[in-house]
Write a structure and sequence with these properties.
The protein has helices at residues 6-47, 51-80, 86-122, 131-161, 164-176, 178-187, 189-204, 246-249, 276-288, 321-342; strands spanning 212-215, 218-225, 229-234, 239-243, 253-254, 262-270, 298-305, 310-318, 350-352, 364-366. By secondary structure, it is an alpha+beta fold. Among the domains are: 9-122, no CATH class; 262-351, Alpha-Beta Plaits. Helix 1 packs antiparallel against helix 2, helix 3 (86-122) runs antiparallel to helix 4 (131-161) and helix 4 runs antiparallel to helix 7.
Length: 367
């Protein structure tokens, strides 16, 4: 029966014991430091009413836990290096560096979301005059997407540059693939143009979130702005997806570019016998009896006249386009009922002069 060499087994298990001790010590040290720091943050967040520290605690606590643990193991690695094989130390160091870069990048991405949440909470969209808030929301969301993409790209680049063999391989590929690089550059030209267009829109803001626009004949609101496309929520709840370059290259209507308030019009076509002053007074009474009118504009004018009818335009104002639409429908219905009940003879008519009739007095009116 073969004898068991306990000394050989002990020598084989010794590195594993040091590795286990390293991991346990790193976990304990990292989690302890993490606990102390975040308990302090939690106590501070309970004493303040700002959302920033609450968001920090909710979003950043988890990724930083891994950062502290990996950093603690990386710091403690030289302490046990003399008891571990050199090959193992090199491999462990490389793995820890890669994990540290990944977790730091994750933490920075979460930080971008934290700052976005804090800024968007300060500039509320659920207020009556939200023009400034829509400007900030548009800029912050596009900047956050750009920052996240940039963080990921830089993290991947740093990760590859951390390994000599991959850095040399990458330089060799770049040096020998000039033609491929030109082809890729040409293929990516449109994508890069879209990215630059998204950044330009974030800065100049021809459109903002919740703007009311008419694009391709469709009325809707800007629901989402990304670096490459814009989502428009149409009035019937369909979504119109438009490339972001569209808003720099083609004309469109923006009803809330300067302010949300807007003028609404109602056209009524009547006979020449219509009493204009009575309609003007009725329009004023209608507007004063509805909450949709903002009290600024109340105008009734005769804007056109032809051989058959008179065109009467009622002009009114509302706080936003949705309210203006409801106000226009209400005014139109009330004016029609007013004509039907009080001046039915002033509705449009077709006049026909009968041949051989003696004078204009015999003109017959045919409804």
């Amino acid at each position: 029966m073969p004898s068991i060499d306990l000394y050989s087994i002990a020598k084989w298990l010794e590195p594993l014991a040091w590795i286990a001790g390293l991991i346990i010590a790193g976990l304990v040290a990292g989690l302890l430091v993490h606990l102390v720091i975040w308990q302090s943050v939690r106590r501070i967040s309970k004493k303040t009413r700002t959302i920033l520290d609450d968001s920090f605690y909710r979003r950043w606590r988890r990724p930083t836990r891994y950062v502290f643990v990996i950093l603690a193991i990386y710091i403690l690695l030289p302490v046990v290096a003399g008891n571990l094989p050199q090959d193992f130390i090199g491999a462990t160091d490389a793995i820890l560096v890669a994990l540290l870069i990944a977790t730091i990048a994750w933490s920075l991405v979460k930080l971008a979301y934290i700052l976005e949440e804090a800024v968007l909470d300060y500039f509320r969209m659920d207020v009556k005059d939200n023009l400034r808030a829509r400007q900030v929301h548009t800029q912050v969301r596009i900047i956050r997407r750009f920052a996240v993409a940039l963080t990921v790209i830089v993290a991947v680049a740093v990760l590859f540059m951390s390994y000599e063999q991959f850095r040399e391989l990458g330089m060799g590929i770049l040096a020998s693939a000039g033609i491929a690089g030109i082809i890729i550059g040409l293929a990516a030209q449109r994508t890069l143009g879209s990215l630059l267009a998204g950044i330009q829109i974030a800065i100049t803001q021809p459109i903002r979130l919740d703007d009311v626009v008419i694009v391709e004949g469709e009325w809707g609101r800007i629901e989402e702005i990304t670096l490459t496309y814009v989502v428009i929520r149409i009035w019937d709840l369909r979504r119109l997806i438009v490339p972001i370059n569209y808003f720099l290259e083609k004309p469109y209507q923006n009803w809330t570019r300067v302010s949300a308030d807007i003028l609404g019009t109602v056209f009524i076509y009547t006979d020449y016998t219509v009493p204009i002053d009575a309609i003007r007074k009725k329009l004023t009474r209608i507007l004063h009896d509805t909450e949709d009118w903002d009290g600024k504009v109340d105008v009734l004018q005769v804007t056109n006249a032809n051989e058959r009818t008179v065109e009467v335009r009622a002009l009114m104002s509302a706080a936003d386009s949705s309210t203006a639409w409801n106000l226009r429908c209400h005014v139109r219905e009330e004016l029609i009922k007013f004509f039907q009940e009080n001046y039915p003879d002033s509705l449009p008519k077709t006049r026909v002069a009968l041949a051989g009739s003696p004078g204009a007095a015999s003109d017959h009116q045919k409804a």
